[in-house]
Design goal:
The protein has 9 helices and 12 strands. By secondary structure, it is an alpha/beta fold. A 6-stranded mixed sheet has the order 6-7-8-3-9-10, with helices on both faces. A 4-stranded antiparallel sheet has the order 2-1-4-5. Helix 4 runs antiparallel to helix 5. It is a peripheral membrane protein.
Amino acid sequence: MNLSRNGVGLSSTGVSIGYGHGHVVHDVSLHLRPGRVTALVGPNGSGKSTLLRGMARLQRLSTGTVTIGEEEVSGLGARELARRLTVLAQSRPTPQGITVRDAVELGRHPHRGRWRSRDADGPLAVQRAMELTGVAALAEDTVDTLSGGQLQRVWLASCLAQDTAVLLLDEPTNHLDLRYQVELLDLLRQLADEHGVTVGVVLHDLNHAAQVADVVAVLAAGSVVACGSPETVLTAEVLSEVWGIEIGVTRDREGRLEVRPRGCRRTTALHDEPTLGEPALVAV
Ligand SMILES: Nc1ncnc2c1ncn2[C@@H]1O[C@H](COP(=O)(O)OP(=O)(O)OP(=O)(O)O)[C@@H](O)[C@H]1O
């Protein structure tokens, strides 16, 4: 992989998105920076996946623009975009009868010429991606024989093999056991720190967000209601108001944030009835 040439951010400006019955993402401006992990968190249905898909050009925007580096993504060809940005979606159809290696190789599609020619870096990128995600030993197995967690790692490997400056992931820890959850979060940090990759990741586990993110953006009812460092955003006040239950935030012995739901339902949640108002915190 040749990730060291990265350093391109991804920004939405005034983005609204709907599915034909009003908007579910409202006027969102968000800057994902190179070398930073930005976590999108929020209750079910708050618009995280829709926003991520809109930023990846997988969802039509009603208003606003998305830029990658200096260029609008709407002006790029599919191959040009795929050389810069990749998405690990929540679920993909499982192709029948292809090997893990073949599935990971699918990520090389924007780097190939016609007839699969001119991708000299391909075999090494595929091998490295399989090693980083722990699926190298499964390389010759067919993907339809894998467990959900193994398959999730294969698709992650395919994204890594694509070797892009921007990596977007929608709930990537789904299906992963504890070890691979930790390894995945470590890998995201490594990609950002050592290779300058711009990482945007939807996470449900707020402790994962606290652990991995430089910036946390909280969505509620389609709007970003708080955005900033984990310390400034993952507070008992913000989280309790957005999720509508009592949530405590403490620090463990090493000083890391620990988010603990206390389970008492409040009368209203932010996503039921917006009360927090405009974004309370400014992105770092
Ligand atoms: N394909 C679709 N057609 C119509 N409405 C949709 C579609 N996908 C999502 N929605 C609606 O858009 C809103 C936001 O959904 P989205 O999946 O973006 O939220 P989310 O924050 O990612 O949710 P979750 O945490 O449950 O994955 C929800 O009200 C949902 O019902």
